[in-house]
Each structure stands twice: as C-alpha cells, then as structure tokens.
Design goal:
The structure holds 3 protein chains of 3 kinds. By secondary structure, chain A is mostly helical. Chain A contains 21 helices and 2 strands. Chain A has one domain. A two-stranded antiparallel ribbon of chain A has the order 1-2. The chains are: A mainly alpha, B mainly alpha, C mainly alpha.
C-alpha cells in the first residue's frame, strides 16, 4: 500500500521536534515545558491512531513504507514500515509515553532536561518499532540508551547511579552481539543487504551453522532486553531506582522491544536456528515464570515485587515464542506484550502514586489503606486482578492463549507454567491484603491523600484498554492475524 | 684486491644496533642515551651503505645523507630539551624524570 | 624544470609558516591573535589548494597526490586547524616565542602531508621526521613547567629510538629488494618469492622492526608506555594534536608500507612471514590494555590518552583486514576521530585554563554551570564511545564490517567487548558532569577561536554521523589508491 504522506517519519520525529522545542524554552518556564512535551506526545499519539485507522489488516505485507537511500556506501537505507506486530507496539508506546509525560508533571528538579531526554527516548523507542533496515534499527536501539541512562541516573532513587550504569552497560553488552550478528548476516547475504524485508526472504537459505550462530547472538541481545532468565539481573535495579514514569516506560515499552526484535528478526529470518534452540528457550521461559513469581513472593519492597513480576510475565512470552508452530501461541505472546505493557505500566504508576504520598514502598509498613483511600484501592485492585489473570481482563486472554497455543508443543512445560499462575495469584493477593486490608494505622497514614484527578486521568486509559481487550479481544486479534499467520509460515521454513 | 664480504658489514651493523639499543635501555644518563640512539641510527646507516655498495645502487647513499641530516636536527632539538630539563631540575639522570609515572 | 603543482599545498604551507614566524615580530606583546589567525587562514588556503592536486606525481613517483594522500591531508589540516584554534589562550599567556609555537605546528603539518604522499622510503622517512621533530619541541613548550619538559624529553627519546628501529627495518628491506620505491619493493619481493619460495628470516626481522617502529608512533601496546606521560605533560592543544595528527600520520605510514607494499604478506597463510596475525594480536592487546587502564585514571588528559591508545587498537582492526573496505574504514575512522578527540581536548583545554584543574572529579556539576560546553563534551565522548547516531559509531561499524568481511570475527567480538569497558569510563565523565549534584562554581565561556573549534567539531561529529555519504565516498576513493 502506498501512502502519500510519510506518516511513520512524522511519528518518529515529532518527539524529536518536541525535544528541540523544549530545549529552546527558558528553563524557568516549567509549566510551558511540561505542557509542550505533553502536546508533542499527544500529537504523536494522534499520528499512531491515524496509522491504526488506515492500516489494512487483511494483508501481511509491510505498509506505510518509506524508503530513502540513506548511506549507499554501506548499503544502509532509511526504510520504514509497519505490519501487524509493530502497529500494536506503536500504539502502546505512544500511549504509555503520553501517560508517562503527564504523570511526570510532578518532577521539579531540572525539568527542562527531563522532558528533553524523555522525548528523545520516545523518538528512539518509536524508531525501533518502525525501522526495517538493520543499520537504522541498531541506531534507534542504541539511541534510546543514552537518555535512559540520564533519566535513571539523574531523577532516580537512592542507588540511581549504580542502576543507571548497570542498565547502560548491560544493554550495550547485549547490543554488541546484535552488531556482530548483523554484520555476519550482511556478509553472508548475496547480494549484501541490510534490509530486513530482503533478509526475511533470503536468510533462511543460509547454511545451518551461520543461522545457529546468528540466532544465538541475536538471542543474547534480545534476551537481555526481554529479560529472559538468567539475563534479568539489570531489571530489578533499573525498575526500582528509576522514577515512576521511567519505570512505566521500562516495563511497558523497553521490555517489549526484546520480544519484538525476536519476532521481527531472529524468528522470522533464522528458522534453522529457531528449531535448534526452541526447547532451551521454552525451558528458560519456564524458569523465568517460576523464578520471577517465587522471587516476587519474597519481596518486601512493593516496586521490586512489581519488577520481578515482569520477569515472570515475560516468561510466558518466551514459552509462547518457543511454540513457533502455533498461531494461537504467537498471538498469545503479542497479547501478553500489550496486556503486560498496560497492566505493569499501570502498576508502576500506582506504586509511584503511593510512594509520592507515603515516601516508602515497604509492603509491611502499610495496612488497611482501603479505609482511607477507597478509589486508589479500587484501581489498584483492578490491576492486581488483571495481573493475576482474572477472566474479563486482558491478562487472562493472553495467558490463556499462550497455554492453549503451546500445549501441543510442550505439554510438560505448559503444565508447569500453569503453576506460575497460581504463584502469581498468591503474591498479588497477599500484597493487596497486606496493603489495603487489615488494621489501619491512623497515626502513621492519617495524612495520606486520595489519588488526584491528573493521576486518575493517566491511569484510566490503561484501565479501559485492559478491560476492553479482556472483554472483546477480537479487534486486536484481527489486527494481527494476517501478519502472524504469515509469520508462522515463515518460521516453519 | 680483496673486498670485505657483505655479511661482515651486516653483522657489524646488527651488533652496533644491539649495542645502541642496550645503551638506551640500560643507561640512566640522558646524554649517554642520546649517544646510544646515534649509534642505532649509524648502525642503520652502515647497513644502508653496505647494501648500496653491494647492489651498486645510489639510493642508499642518498638515504644515508638524509638520515645524517635528520639525526643532526634531532640531536639539536634533543640537547635543547635536555638543557631545559636540566634547568628545571639540575640533573641529567633519567630517574629524575619521575613527575609522572612512566 | 619540474612541474611542482602536486607539491603546491606543502610548499605554500611551508612558506606561510615562515610568514607566521615573521608576523610575530609585528604583533602586540600580550596577544597571540595575529600569528594565530594567520595560521588558521593559511591552513584554510592550503585546504583549497588541495582541491586541484589529485592523481599527480612527482620525481618518478616518490611523491604522489593520490586520493588517499588527499584524504589524510584533509585530516591533518583539520587537526592542525583545531589545535591552533584551541591554542589561543595558551599562546596568549606566553611572553616569548609565540610565533614559533604556531610555526612549529605548521611545520609538523607539512611533514605529515609529505608523509601521506610518500610512496618511497626516503621520502617517507624524512616526512616522518619532519612530523615528529617539531612535536618534540611542542611537547616541551612550556619550558618553565617540569611536567612539560619531562614530557618533551620522554617523547624525544622514544621518538628517536623508534625511528632508529624503523630505519633499521627499512635498510633491510632496501638490502633485500634493492629499491626504495614501494611499488618496486612489492614487485621485487614477489620475484624473490617466486624464485626462491622463501624470503628468509631477514625479511621477518625487517617486518617486525618496521612494525615496532611505527607501533611506537601509534602508541600500540606494548609500545605505548610513553603516551600517557607525554599526553599528560604536554600543553593540552599539543596533546590533542599529538593524539590526532601524529597518530593519523603514523597510520598513513603503516598503510603506505604494509598495505601498499607488503599486501601479499597480510594473510596468515604466509606465516611465518606474515604481518596480519602479528598486527591482529597487537590490536587485541592494545584494545584490552588501553581500555582497562583508562578506567582507573583520574586525570582527564591521561584518561583520554589511554582512550586514544585504545582507539588506535580499533583502527588497527581495520588495517588487519587489509582490504579495500578496511582502508576506507580506517580513513573514515580517523576522520571522525579527529572531530571527537580534538573537540574533547579543546574543552579540556578551556576548562583547565579557567579552573587550573585537569581532574575528572572537578567536572562535577559542569552541566549546570556551563550547559552548552557540557553538552558538547558529552557528544564528543559519546562519539568516541561509538554511540549512534554520531560519527564515531559509523566509524566503528565500518571498521568492524571490514574485519568481519576479512574473516576476523574473533577480533571484532573482542573489540566490541572492550568497547563495553570503554563505555564505562566514558560514561564516568558524563556521570560527573550530569549526575553529580555538587554545584560547579565556574561558568565558562570559550573565546572566539576556541568556540569556532568546538562548533566545527560538534557539527562534524553530528553531521558526519547522520549524513556521512560524501565523506564515505572520499574514503572509498582513498582506498582505491591501493591495489588489493
């Protein structure tokens, strides 16, 4: 489909324009900076909604393609396009970015730099989901890291510098493997190309050895981002130390990039490597599910609990991805990405809301908050239920699809993975019980104020979407179906 | 007339080069170090001349002249710096150059 | 009468240097402006003179002006321009010998340009010496400073020893092949090889001597011990010039000799008479040692010294590839490295001039007191680290691509692993400037020429990261100067 208007470029570079505008504003004009950032994030979201409206879900081919011969000397081109797996990610990214910007209105320290870095981050994230050229993909992949380093390092919690550098080095360590794999793919392909579209066609003809090598290297890069156990150790530090908005972005968008990269790159291009590694990946996914859940159970810090629950939730994605023969499983993985982005994003947001008022995140310090904060309790419980997979919420749909889809391929692993659901229910319910029920310490928490309108406005789109997908998943499924069916054919090669 | 074979020159030049190199490493006196460097350069000069003579070519001779000129320039600059160092610390011992770790 | 047109840029710059020397007689007592601006103008004019001088040769091919030479000359002129631009503050405080300072930089630049054009051993040797002898003086320029004289002396001794070693290697090559012309050396060596099937240990000794001699100039580990001391002790603009100009010159010499004349001996197939695997090992240990030792440095000049040692290791990865892609990659690498490194040193010079401190710790809070300078410093550092979309990333990508193509995947993996170490110490500078909450008392505004240098470097790093195509074309043309 040809589209006369370069809408994807507009999506990617509107935040960058916003960054420039913000940088030109006087640093004293805090309100203007905040609103300007929100306006640019909002415009970006409008663009992504236009893409959603005009997206033709009946075909698996790339749409809204933009192509420009960027650096001919190294065969790198500026190639953009979206299909059924990138459109949901684009929507999720632009929505969560807007939410994160609005929730960051309470940032008072170095406001101008904060929003400038945030908009640069958004530009990088959106770029990753639309880039179809390896060089461009890698550029966006790395561009994100620098603002992320600053955002965690300047505005984070007490151990922010450690968390920031750990995140930075860990992800860069991952991306070097991706770079080597990209170069190997480039020189193996004939004619040499960096275009993902071309490589999806030609890469499966590479020799088995090259495919396994490239797959392994790509896997390390993406697995660190996902994060797959045992590459997850950066996650608790980064998620816990990051400011609220950045935790939302980390959980809601950055973790999705790893899975997106797998589907887009290694799964689609290197089927031989996939077949070779499928079982170990499923096992790693299972370990992630159980390990994440068990560690969550042991947490005393609320934010850490939510962070480790991400490890557990992303494990479902890995199990689903390992069952590459089933459209249901892959669709379940995509649903899980969207729903985890919404739910965990909202959870971090709510934890941040609580922390802003109570200045502690220790679960044991709270009790009976339901008496004092009924609205907050209601919203929190809603997302808690969504997280543990209550039917009628998006989490249920995705987990159910994952189990049904991958059961045929891995009956034992799926059987054990269901155990994870029980564990999830256990730690979520225990957390809700300890914080909101029980005895209320009026002396300590009598001064707590209810969640305010801005925060409710931020969290409500997430709540609406969580319920909507849970009740009526068909639109999202239809959006992705053609692409996923095509993908399953590609992976079976 | 008997001529000295090429090998002898080359071996001599190798010995001279080795002496120079050892001199630079072992000596602690800056002036002696400079002399050792000169020996190394002249070892190379000897080899060049010998090859040039053996091959009946002129390039080597030209090379040697230029090397000598360069060595003179180097020595001039080097001694000037040694004087500057001496003025700053009253010593030409290489061990006194310890302001920064080697 | 010989037509000297190909030599015109060098001749002009040489004469202009003398003009600059004379101009100091007429300039005011406490101002470096006149000789400084004259030097800058001279460099720009020389740059324009380079345009018509391509694919010409002089004296039967001793001196050529091929695309490779022109590309490197652009780099030398750029490095000299930025070094002089950031020297105004330093020179302004000198009471004596201000004109000489600029003149010496220009002389050294002439030597580098000569070196890049040399396709014959004598020219190459003389060019190399003309490059380094003025640099000895420049390193020791602040005579009253003990560190500076010490740096000059160390540089001098190491430089003299390394050129003696190099010369010894060259003399053996001359003896083996009976010629000093690089092209003829290639031909004679292959005749020798075809006749005897072996080149004997003398050839190995010569290869190793030349490699060692040039490795000293490039500060490859284990021939690097001098570099940190000299870089720390020399006046900062001179350090910058050393780390970019003289390194690029040494690289030009390595490429001319090894890729130009000994290309047949690049592959490990020719072992033990090959240089590829030796250089690969040198590159590997250079990257490892340079990056690891840089971590514990507290002086920013010393840190940048070790970083530039490591950068030389990355460049060598491209030389090891010994291919068309490899040479164009290192050409682009040095080009982008010039902007980033000169920019970073220029900022160090500006800060040190104002605060008197070269400690990384004293950069704390710099982003609040001087946001523009801090932002530029961050950009230069990130480019050195190789973060996209800055020019340094494309340079690294290109070099690694060349090495993967040549089959050195292990070297690329190692290079990338060491670059993760590099991210750590580069990030440390950024951490100090941005993450530290301490207030910084100095609001620093650079002088006009220094600001010009920073603008040039900043634009270069960003522009050639986003739109590198014109420079890549030139770099590819530069590689076409060699036969593979």
């Amino acid at each position: 489909m040809t589209y006369s208007f370069p809408i994807l470029s507009f999506i990617v570079f509107t935040p960058l324009l916003g960054m420039i505008v913000v940088m030109l504003l006087n640093r004293e004009r805090v309100t203007a900076i905040r609103w300007m950032s929100a306006v640019f994030a909002f415009i970006t979201m409008i663009f992504t909604l236009i893409v959603l409206k005009d997206y033709d879900s009946s075909t698996a081919s790339m749409q809204f393609m933009e192509s420009f011969n960027w650096i001919p000397s190294i065969n790198a081109s500026y190639l953009l396009g979206v299909d059924g797996i990138s459109v949901p990610m684009l929507l999720l990214t632009s929505l969560l970015s807007l939410v994160a910007i609005v929730i960051s209105f309470n940032i008072t320290n170095r406001v101008k730099e904060y929003f400038a870095f945030f908009l640069l981050l958004e530009c990088g994230m959106l770029g990753v989901f639309v880039a179809l050229d390896f060089f461009l993909f890698y550029v966006f992949w790395e561009v994100m890291l620098v603002p992320m380093y600053f955002l965690i390092g300047i505005w984070g919690g007490p151990r922010r510098e450690y968390a920031a550098i750990k995140f930075f080095l860990y992800t860069l360590f991952g991306s070097i493997f991706m770079l080597v794999a990209i170069l190997v793919m480039y020189f193996t392909s004939d004619p040499h190309t960096l275009s993902m579209i071309e490589l999806i066609k030609t890469a499966p003809t590479f020799s088995r050895g090259v495919q396994i090598f490239a797959f392994a290297f790509f896997f390390i890069a993406f697995a660190i981002k996902v994060p797959v156990w045992p590459f997850h150790t950066w996650l608790p530090d980064a998620h816990v130390e990051a400011p609220t908005a950045i935790s939302i972005i980390l959980a809601g968008v950055l973790l999705k990039m790893g899975t997106y990269g797998m589907l887009r790159v290694s799964w689609a291009m290197l089927p031989q490597g996939l077949h070779y590694f499928a079982v170990p990946i499923a096992i790693l996914g299972l370990i992630g599910i159980i390990y994440g859940a068990l560690v969550s159970m042991a947490q005393k810090d609320l934010k850490k609990l939510v962070a480790y629950s991400s490890v557990s939730h992303m494990g479902y994605c890995m199990v689903a991805l390992a069952a590459y023969g089933s459209v249901t499983a892959i669709a379940g993985c995509m649903f899980q990405l969207v729903s985890h982005g919404l739910i965990t994003g909202a959870m971090f947001l709510l934890v941040g809301v609580l922390y802003d008022r109570a200045h502690t995140r220790e679960i044991a310090a709270f009790g009976g908050l339901a008496n004092k904060l009924p609205v907050f309790t209601g919203i929190f419980t809603l997302f808690g239920m969504a997280s543990l997979g209550l039917p009628g919420m998006s989490g249920f749909i995705s987990e159910f699809m994952v189990f049904v889809g991958s059961f045929k391929a891995y009956p034992i692993i799926v059987g054990l993975a269901v155990l994870g659901v029980v564990l999830t229910a256990a730690y979520i319910l225990r957390m809700i019980q300890k914080i909101f029920l029980g005895e209320f310490d009026i002396a300590k928490w009598g001064g707590l104020t209810e969640i305010n309108l801005r925060e409710i406005l931020c969290v409500s789109p997430l709540a609406i979407l969580t319920i909507f997908i849970g009740v009526y998943p068909k639109p999202l499924a239809d959006l992705m179906r053609a692409t996923l069916e095509n993908l399953v054919v590609l992976m079976a090669r | 007339m008997m001529t000295v074979p090429l090998d002898y020159y080359i071996i001599l030049s190798a010995f001279l080069f080795a002496i120079g190199a050892i001199g630079v490493v072992v000596s602690r006196n800056l002036i002696v170090m400079f002399m050792a460097v000169e020996i190394m350069l002249n070892a190379a000069n000897l080899a060049l001349i010998a090859f040039s003579r053996f091959l009946k070519l002129m390039d080597g001779h030209v090379f040697v002249f230029l090397v000598m000129t360069v060595a003179a320039a180097e020595a001039a600059v080097g001694l000037a710096i040694v004087i500057a160092v001496f003025r700053a610390r009253e010593s030409v011992n290489a061990d006194s150059l310890n302001l920064m770790k080697w | 009468m010989v037509n000297l047109t190909p030599l015109l840029p060098e001749l002009f710059l040489f004469c202009w240097a003398l003009v600059v020397l004379a101009s100091d007689l007429f300039s005011k007592r406490r101002s470096a402006s006149l000789p400084g601006y004259l030097s800058l103008a001279g460099l720009v004019i020389t740059g324009f003179l380079l345009i018509p001088a391509h694919d010409a040769y002089l004296w039967g091919g001793m001196f050529v002006s091929d695309p490779f030479a022109v590309f490197f000359k652009i780099i030398f002129l750029g490095a000299a321009f930025m070094a002089i631009g950031s020297s105004f503050g330093l020179a302004g405080r000198m009471t004596h010998h201000r004109g000489e300072y600029f003149t010496l930089i220009l002389f050294s630049t002439v030597g580098m340009m000569f070196l890049a054009s040399a396709k014959e051993l004598i020219t190459l040797y003389v060019g190399l010496e003309l490059t380094t002898i003025p640099l000895y003086v420049l390193a020791a320029y602040t005579k009253s400073s003990r560190a500076s004289t010490e740096a000059g002396l160390k540089y001098m001794i190491i430089g003299a020893v390394s050129s003696a070693v190099l010369l010894y290697g060259l003399s053996i090559i001359y003896g083996l092949t009976g010629t000093t012309f690089l092209q003829q050396i290639t031909i004679n060596l292959s005749i020798y090889w075809l006749s005897y099937g072996e080149l004997g240990p003398a050839f190995s000794i010569a290869l190793m001597a030349i490699l060692a001699g040039l490795a000293f100039k490039l500060a490859l580990v284990p021939f690097h011990m001098w570099a940190p001391d000299v870089y720390e002790g020399s006046p900062t603009p001179v350090t910058a010039f050393l780390s970019v100009g003289s390194k690029a010159a040494g690289l030009a010499a390595i490429v001319r000799i090894f890729v130009g004349a000994f290309i047949a001996f690049a592959t490990p197939v020719m072992a033990p008479r090959d240089w590829g695997s030796t250089l690969a090992v040198l590159a590997a240990i250079t990257m490892i040692v340079g990056n690891i030792v840089a971590i514990r440095q507290t002086n920013i000049k010393r840190m940048l010294a070790y970083s530039s040692i490591a950068q030389a290791g990355y460049i060598m990865v491209g030389v090891v590839a010994a291919s068309n892609l490899g040479v164009s990659a290192i050409s682009f690498y040095v080009f982008s490295y010039m902007f980033a490194n000169m920019g970073a040193f220029a900022i160090v010079a500006i800060i040190a001039e104002r605060t008197g401190s070269e400690q990384i710790a004293d950069l704390a809070g710099f982003s609040k007191s001087s946001p523009v300078l801090a932002g530029l410093m961050a950009i230069f550092i990130l480019s050195l680290a190789g973060i996209p979309p800055l020019a340094g990333f494309l340079a690294k990508y290109y070099v690694f691509a060349a090495a993967v193509q040549a089959g050195y995947t292990w070297l690329v993996v190692l290079a990338l692993l060491t670059s993760v170490i590099a991210y750590y110490y580069y990030a440390n500078v950024i951490r100090m400037m941005y993450l530290s909450a301490d207030p910084n008392p100095h609001h620093i505004v650079p002088s006009f020429p220094a600001g010009l240098v920073l603008a040039l470097a900043g634009i270069g790093v960003i522009l050639f990261g986003l739109m590198p195509e014109p420079i890549l074309k030139l770099a590819i043309a530069a590689a076409s100067s060699f036969v593979f």
